[in-house]
Structures are given as C-alpha cells and as structure tokens.
Amino acid sequence: MRKGRQLFPLEGHTREVTATSDSGEWRERAVCCGADVSVFFSPEGERGHARDRREAQARQVCQLCPVLAQCRDHALTVGEPYGVWGGMTEGDRRKHVMHPHAANVTACQSNCALAPR
Known about the structure:
The chain has helices at residues 48-63, 68-78, 90-98, 100-111; strands at residues 3-10, 13-20. It is of the alpha+beta class.
C-alpha cells in the first residue's frame, strides 16, 4: 500500500501524519461524517463519569458504522493520540500498542454489535 503525507485538522490545529493511500476515502462513508466532534474528542479537563458517558456515546455511533475497521486501522497506523476512532478510545489504543492481542479482544467485546452482552 502506498504511503504519503496528509494534513489532518484537530481542534483548530493542523498536524501532518503519515497516512496510507486510502486514509481519506473511507471518511466520506463514516456514520460520524458531519457529526458533532465533541462526542468523539474530550474537552479539556474532562474526567470520570463525564468522559465515560461521552466515550460510550461515541462507541454507539461507531457500532453502526460501515467503515469501523478502516477508521480503527487508520488510528492505529498513524498513532492517533486523541479521541474515539473506530470504536477505540485513547486508552484502548494505548493498551493495543502495549498488548495487541489483549486489546483487540477487549475492544471487540465492548464495541462489536455481535459481542455477547
């Protein structure tokens, strides 16, 4: 897969990341396209139950998304440090980097529509 440089806006700032050639195509089909970004990105100082509620709301949106896997893969590939991407929170992605198999199982159990409840 061809790699390139792409600029991604984030909270009024633009940062450059290494991105795969398909990193933008899937975004147009994402359920969150055009949604309020405050659901997916925490405001400064957000903690505890408020953060848990916001992240749960974002995960619900992600469960319905036809490009969940591409979104998650993008976030893991570029090392996205902020927000909920592909149903994974910042903490989920950190766990994935430290323990890839365990994080995948945990993320799937909490995010997948087919996961046992």
